[in-house]
Design a protein that fits this description.
The protein contains five helices and five strands. Helix 2 runs parallel beside helix 3.
């Protein structure tokens, strides 16, 4: 993957520790970072910061990942979404795809897998 400088990633997870781990990894890859702790904050950040990619947890308070993707889909979102969760079963996977998710990473996150998924999406 070429330089990411100038690419912005939105990291959405209710766990501060999970966000910090992803943020440190992405900063080391020269991404600009925006973070949110739930879907409601994420929508606000999407509108204000226009990220290039969204890393989205599914299970969160206030507005979960499914509700967030439903909102984004209904509003014509074109930003690639990578779902990062410990909760990937076949029906969950299919529902996320229907809602526009382009990538899936299981927790705990393997950084080489995350990097590969992000690279693939950015190159497209």
């Amino acid at each position: 993957m070429e330089r990411k400088n100038g690419f912005t990633a939105l990291v959405v997870d209710d766990s501060k520790l999970n966000r910090q781990i992803l943020i440190e990894f992405l900063k080391n890859k020269d991404f600009k970072i925006v973070e949110a702790e739930d879907g409601k904050q994420a929508i606000s950040k999407i509108e204000s910061d226009n990220p290039d990619i969204i890393l989205l947890d599914l299970i969160m308070p206030v507005m979960d990942g499914f509700e967030t993707m439903e909102y984004l889909k209904s509003n014509g979102n074109l930003i690639p979404i990578i779902v990062i969760t410990a909760y990937i079963k076949e029906n969950t996977f299919n529902r996320c795809k229907e809602l526009g998710a382009k990538g899936f990473i299981n927790k705990p996150v393997k950084m080489h897998e995350l990097f590969g998924t992000i690279s693939k999406l950015i190159e497209n």
